[in-house]
Write a structure and sequence with these properties.
By secondary structure, this protein is an alpha/beta fold. The chain has a single domain, classed as TIM Barrel (Alpha-Beta Barrel). The protein is built from 11 helices and 10 strands. The strands form 2 sheets. The protein has an 8-stranded parallel β-barrel, surrounded by 6 helices. A two-stranded antiparallel ribbon has the order 1-2. Strand 1 and strand 2 form a beta hairpin. Helix 1 crosses helix 2, helix 2 packs parallel to helix 3 and helix 7 runs antiparallel to helix 10. The longest helix has 18 residues. The two termini are 31 Å apart.
Amino acid sequence: MEYRTLGRSGLKVSALTMGTMTFGGSGVFGATGATGLEEAKSLINICLDAGINLIDTANMYSAGLSEEIIGEALGAKRPNDVLIASKVRARIGKGPNDEGLSRHHVIRECERSLKRLRTDVIDIYYLHEWDGTTPLEETIAALDTLVAQGKIRYIGCSNYSAWQVMKGLGISDLRHHPRFITQQIHYTLEAREAEYELLPLSVDQGLGVLVWSPLAGGLLSGKHRKGATAEGSRLTAGWTEPPIRDEDRLWRIVDALVEIGKGRGVSAAQVALAWLLGRPAVASLVIGGRREDQFRDNIAAAALTLSDEERRRLDEVSRPPVIYPYWHQQNTSRDRFGPADLVMDRG
């Protein structure tokens, strides 16, 4: 297992992170899976034995049950080098302060997460979604308090736009508060929108990127083909993320993944993950699943290196359009591009 420095911090994280959205299976998360305690223990051991050192969860996953299962599965024997990431923002009750990023909600939910996880500290604490009704100054000051109290070690954001991330970084720098060291985003061969702003921002500002749903909810696993979606998947259970706007393009990408995988003797999923691991600023991919074979197959991607020709083929079949102002910059400013400008694959 490769370990990568997370952004400009000194923290080393495994190239693959264990995702636990399937733990519990309560409410809407039942569509993704319903992993119980004993199954979770087995899956966690597989990941730890493979060298994965980061487990990712959120207070909203099955209304906190995912955190509870992790806490019980690790127990008092949690290895010192196992990192835990959790998140805050989503509605977790019916009260007026049971959602958002107010100081009240952030601090209260962190303390609740700590109890469920049976730990004294959360290593990475994410703002899970944007909250445009709470001043970001208030939210980041609350995170500063939690860091000072020793309840969280690093902070990050997830599903933010570029201007929202930059606003947070600006507030942290101005007020000498902790800075985001990471952002967790959706980024795949099928969904490359992050290359417009979020990846260049990460390169420029030193944020390590974690990718959620790196196989697009299983669409890039090779198990689904045009006109034939595998039964028992989250897609057939009604899960709607990510949205697919061009199905013909999706299946062309899948065809390329399957063909490259056959040529290398590996799964299409491993090829898709290996492509992501070679992208700028990407530190770790959050892999999930309901079965041992899914985790073992995904874990094998950490050892796969794609050839330049394989990467070129995948780039071509998945390349997003060059939108404004990037086509104008390409035509007029390319001779003065820096590292962040070169993140986007312009062909």
